[in-house]
Amino acid sequence: MTDTTFLRENERIDDLEINGFRIIQNPFSFCFGMDSVLLSDFISIKPAAKVLDLGTGTGIIPLLLAAKGKGKEWTGLEIQPEMAEMAERSVRLNDIQDRCHIIQGDLRTVRENFSPASFDAVTSNPPYMKEGSGLRNPQDTKYIARHEVTATLEDVVSAAAYLLKTRGSFSMVHRPSRLAEIIEVLCRYNLEPKRMRLVQPTSDKPANMVLIEAVKEAGHEMKVLPTLVVYGKDGEYTKEILEIYGKI
Fold it and tell me: What pLDDT score does 134 carry?
């Protein structure tokens, strides 16, 4: 079967540059960004873990985790049918359909489709902006991916808490401007923040991303990791970013 067999109109295949893994993307709908790459690097899970990604989009998080050998079995849950179908084709493109599964469904109804405490780890790169904030993107797939149209922060955290086993981990990337709300909601659902890392575009600019890991029914103690800076003074990626991308 040739690569073109997997493609639809306007789609392309991008090399993830990790163990030969690739992903199908459509620039007219939605393409993954640096936040997904940084989250996949930040996530710390055991090799035998069963992982679920909430709002998986094109399936980038399960694909990156599979490529890195983080976990043993991965499931991506995505509400948009066209995105879920594209993600499923990427799974077949990489020939990992025996251990990676894409499900089209609503994370707000996980209690109807999944048993409680059925995953060792849950991940999410959820919409950052509240519905109604910012300009509406003419491409609905992008708007849904970036705004809380189909799921709020609390919806995501509530689903993660239901799906996780005791001492299971929930890892997420979000905006620092909502950090107080994030921590309050996590704690309310008995997900104790354990690790956090801020991401700054440059050393002299405020952080624009936060990576956070919470553990279900854990004790009260959080480790704040050194801030990750994306660009150096020369405008090029810093050494750590290049290492994350596998460039050095």
Answer: 53
One-letter identity of residue 147: H
pLDDT, residue 245, reads 92
d(CA 173, CA 240): 18
Please spell the DSSP secondary structure of 106-156, one letter per residue.
-GGGHHHHS-TT-EEEEEE----B-TT-SPPPSSHHHHHHHBTTS--HHHH
Over residues 227-237, the pLDDT tens digits come to 999 999 999 99
Q: 205-236 burial, b if ≥16 CB within 10 A, otherwise e?
A: eebebbbbbbbbebeeeeeeeeebbbeeeeee
148 pLDDT band (50/70/90 cuts)?
A: very low
Angle at 75 between CA 70 and CA 77, to 5 degrees: 130
Return the SS3 of 1: coil
Tokens of 153: 């922060």
Q: Is residue 196 classed as helix, strand or coil in its secondary structure?
A: strand
